[in-house]
Amino acid sequence: MEEQPQAIEEKTAIVEKKRKNSEQDQRIQNDITETAVMLQNIESDSELKSALNGAGIDDDELDLGKAKQTASQDGYNTRQDSIGAEESANNTLKVVWPIIEAEAIDIREVLRARFSDSGNRRALGIVGNLPQDRQKTITVMRATYSECKKPEYQTILSKSGYGISAIDEYLGNLTTAENAISAARKAVADGKRATTLRNAAIKDLRQWVSMVKRIAKRALRTRPDLLDKLGI
Alpha-carbon distance 134 to 105, whole Å? Predict the structure, then answer.
């Protein structure tokens, strides 16, 4: 079946958004790294440090810059960690969810074949179709599997390959999926907070670097060799 135009557009938009975010991340990391190099050059060159000190960029100002650079790097790292956590959780879900679906379909067919009584079917949660929502599916199937472990069902199910150990394995897969869903949601929330903090930190850092370079351009206008060490 060919993909619908809307689905193709949505996928294209997602890819484009990821590309732009990646480019933005790279620009931010470049600025953080360049600032770290600039600060190191200042600390390692006594002549440069003295010249800046004479222009008002003293040790206190440099310490402030270091703090801003550290805050930006920490914010960047925290955001990247949250992205990694979300990808890891989603990858886990991609692996385990098809297994869960297959297990659910198989056992529901067996249960419907083995238990025709309406009361049993309601107790086993096999009336109607499975929900489309993953969390709701987990809730339904957890209740089904828990019911399947009862002796009155095990006397039949254990002979069909659905003994306690098999049911526990299925329950374990549900727990894995549920944990992955929760981890992905947490990572998204953490990522949003981290992005806000990172953006504020890098804005603050860029303003500080711009201020230092403006002052340095005037104070060191006859020393291009020192300006080069500041990335100017």
Answer: 14
